[in-house]
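User: My instructor asked us to take a sequence, write out its structure as tokens, and then describe one feature of it. I'm not sure where to start. Here is the sequence I was given:
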Amino acid sequence: QRDQVQLIAIPAAVNVVATYPIAPVADSAQLELARAFADFVVSPTGQAILEKYGFDHVQP
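Assistant: Let's start with the prediction itself. The structure tokens for your sequence are:
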């Protein structure tokens, strides 16, 4: 399906860079699982997955 995607250059003056914060919620019913997921995202494996899909590296 990549051959169906067209890249369009966006001038820096009008480009909006999105950020996606991540943090476990303190009173989560699955706090340990949430922590494990956040840890995975900032791990080398998680970073490689993010990079593969065009995301920048996470700043832990």
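For the description part of your assignment, you could build on this observation: The helical segments are 31-42, 44-52. Try explaining in your own words what that tells you about the chain.
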